[in-house]
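Data deposition worksheet. Section B asks for the primary sequence of the deposited chain exactly as it was used as input, without tags or linkers unless they were present during the calculation. Section C holds the resulting structure in token form. Section D is free text for depositor observations; keep each observation to a single sentence. Incomplete worksheets are returned to the depositor.
Section A, Depositor: J.P.
Section B:
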Amino acid sequence: MPKYDEGWEEKEREPPAPGERVKALRRQLREEAIAGRSGPLEDTFGRRHNYLRISLTEKCNLRCLYCMPEEGIDLTAKEELLSTDEVVRVARLFVANGVDKIRLTGGEPTVRPDLEEIIRRLRALPGLRDIAITTNGLTLHRNLHALQAAGLTHVNISLDTLVPPKFELLTRRRGHDRVLKSIDRAVELGYDPVKVNVVLMRGVNDDELLDFVEMTREKPINVRFIEFMPFDGNKFEEKKVVSYCEAKERILEKYPTLTRMQDHRSEVAKNFKLDGHRGTVSFVTSMTNHFCGGCNRLRIMADGNLKVCLFDQGEVSLRDAMRGGASDDELMDVVGKAVGNKKAKHAGMSDLQNMENRSMIRIGG
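Section C:
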């Protein structure tokens, strides 16, 4: 009969340390949650991701202070960016798995010469309802009609000031009049609403809060006030953040009819209407009142990296998987694992400002 070390039975029965037991239980619950998902685009918190943002380029014809570091960035080599076919392939797979809205971003998406072709090919995907673009509007007025004919359904134009000299200071470029021209062109072509994104910064443009609201009086414009967010190179200062509550109260002083509209669960903005105004006002409250519980969006950067949360440092390369010969099923397995690891919510403001992350121009905000 074999001789066992004395105390062997007792050692086998010894329970794991409390900390290890908790970790093991969490791992088990997470594995069960991942296994129980209805598809690769549902995370372990039951959030279904039907909205995909695709950055088409890191290049931009502006140099906005909060987006690109003053010294610029080293651009990813062209051959390392997703090709037209790769963009369409990724989009096709995501749409086949439940995505019905795609937003094209950058950098500045209008500097990509194949933009019209990409939109046309996306429009042909069965099940895709919306194709949107976020642009600085500098050149949009030139080709918006062609983009609309190709299938572009929604337009967001970024404009942080209504004062031309301040525009030049914030963007380090000229062209304020051209952005306004693009907004008017979008209205002329029937986009309703035309969304105007305004990153609100204390001491920079918060004195124009009411002027932006006035833009909504005669035109179908949805002005979206976005809280200033921390990203690498933008010299984030918490004191620059103008909270949703403060901005809303300041607007209410002049516009007492400001009334909350019914928002969809996955809507990132808090939407308001005003009596006598054709347009609306919204607040994107990423910093002071996050909307993580209803998050339905995923991001693919220009280099093909998938980012499941704007504020998460983790990324996974779909480009490398595709160029390594991955089948469609294998590619969606990669996506599914990344989505399965998405957290319930992003970090707090104090943690975010100390977190290393890509600059906004690389992420495609």
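Section D:
The domain at 51-363 is CATH 3.20.20.70 (TIM Barrel).
The chain has a mean pLDDT of 88.
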